[in-house]
Write a structure and sequence with these properties.
This protein is 23% helix and 37% strand. It has an 8-stranded mixed β-sheet with strand order 2-3-4-1-5-8-7-6. It comes from Pseudoxanthomonas japonensis.
């Protein structure tokens, strides 16, 4: 159900160093990093097994302790579209229309909304369009 989880931190460099050390004991390391130049506002890194970031720490999208990011797995791009539409209809604020996010990987198709409590929620499908027919 949950694809990945991100937390906002006060000091990105210190938090990255902390989690690199702690998560290495579980066999996980940094598998992806994004910068403000790439995203427009957020800098962070994702930890997980090779090629698959599941836990993100970063700075720029909210206040530490608030501004949580929760991504839910979707099986199709149509589900991502439906998730976004339903969220907006239920009172969420748009935080990124459905679409490809190739800076994560070529088939990353996601949509974002801010729920009534201020959490950034996302639905994401990792499959290429042709695999969904």
């Amino acid at each position: 159900m949950i694809d990945h989880l991100g937390i906002e931190v006060a000091d990105y460099a210190a938090s990255r160093a902390f989690y690199e050390r702690v998560l290495a004991t579980l066999g996980h390391g940094v598998v992806m990093e994004v910068t403000r130049d790439i995203t427009g506002a957020y800098e962070g890194c994702g930890f997980g097994p090779p090629g698959r970031p599941h836990f993100w720490v970063g700075r720029g999208s909210g206040t530490p302790g608030r501004g949580s990011h929760i991504a839910f797995s979707a099986q199709t791009r149509a589900q991502v579209d439906a998730f976004h539409a339903a969220a907006l209809a239920a009172g969420a604020r748009d935080n990124g229309a459905p679409g490809l996010r190739p800076h994560y990987h070529p088939d990353y198709y996601g949509a974002f909304a801010i729920d009534p409590d201020g959490h950034n929620i996302e639905a994401v499908c990792h499959l290429p369009a042709e695999a969904q027919s």
